[in-house]
Amino acid sequence: MKTRLASLLMIGAALYARPGRAAGGALADAQEGHEGHEGHEGEDVRPMDVVVTAQIVTLTEAMRSARAHQPALEMARGNVVTAWGQADQVRAALLPQLNGNASYSRGTNNYVPSVGGTTPGAQTISSSFTTYARWYSSLTLSQMIYDFGETINKWQAAVAAAQAMDQTVSITEFQIDYNTRFAFFTARAAKELVGVARDNLANQEKHLAQVKGFVEVGTHPEIDLTQAKADRATAELQLITAETNYATAKANLNQAMGVERSIDYELSDEDSPPVAGEDGAVEALVGEADHDRPEMRNLYLNLKSQELTLRSAHDQIWPQLTLSGNLNDAGPDLDRTAWNFSGIFSISVPFIQGGAIHAAIKQAEGQITQAKSQVDTERLQVRLDVEQARLGIRSAKGSIVAGEDALANSRDRLRLAEGRYRAGAGSIIELGDAQVALVTAAAQLVQARYQLFIARAQLVKALARK
Hints:
Helices cover 66% and strands 13% of the residues. It is an alpha+beta fold.
């Protein structure tokens, strides 16, 4: 008990010397996160809104804009301010409390004897409507001296909870980064699919012109011309669909960037570079993610907060020592008052609380169990996220190789089909099938390339890299 009392007195001295900051020990550690949070206040980190007027948007500009304008990030920062405010409210119980009071009253002063009758020489009973004034003012100072760690543990629990809330800002930032990368590369894929659709339409128009010439000279049946016109119309519809998908993807990108602007812009032609270690050992990546993920730090701090809450609940069974003083001045007129002062040293012992303390302990124990389960669950999620991202990268790389081969073979097939049709050895159906195969192979290659970029974005998020 002497050790805990000495520790508390040292903490109290630091609090009194500089409210809001601890001078060492556990409270200094608890306040470290708060000081770091306050250090960002007043800083203007919002970049210029270049992306709002840019005709070509880069990934870097898109991510910078999302960090500056996404309401979700402001909401997370607001939650952090709220959490630190709650921690400071709990800390207030450790500091002196000074309250002032002033009043003016006017009323009768009739004598009323106590229950049981009068005593010899007592004032006679009388009633009068005469009123008298009373001026009263007072200052009351109180300080909690010692409560066996209940309040200090409660405050440290609130600080740990606020530090856990600090991590939600980083969690939100990484999620915003991923959402922006995903929206950007989805829009880039849609842009390339527009190019595929345009190439397809150009080929269909070329085929239509060739078939029309063959039909006019009578070397091919008229049904070939009808089929060529239908293929061209289908290609036009596919182009319209691709352009609509591209426009929609840019609208989604605007939302991810947190800006309100038109979609009359283009995207820069940039790829996603390889992620360091994407082909390395999975255990090294999982270890990195487990150490760096803000979700893990958030849950560990939350667990620490629940453990401190349990300690505070156990400490409720001990007495609380309080010192208070009162200084007052009262009288019938402002120029006829008298002052008095008093001091009180009190001890409050919670003998019977209706089972409230036991219930608080049980609640805290249950919350610790939940917090530990959340840590274990998140650890499994970390591994799953890393594994899925790596498998996505591996699959996309293999699909790219196969897609490039399929595209090259489809081009040869179309070239041969066109030659056979010109020579009269092939049919319009064979030509159309070759064209469809080429478009399909080109679209699959585009999708494979951008699946690789999105899988890399997933790995970056899983590893908590920027």
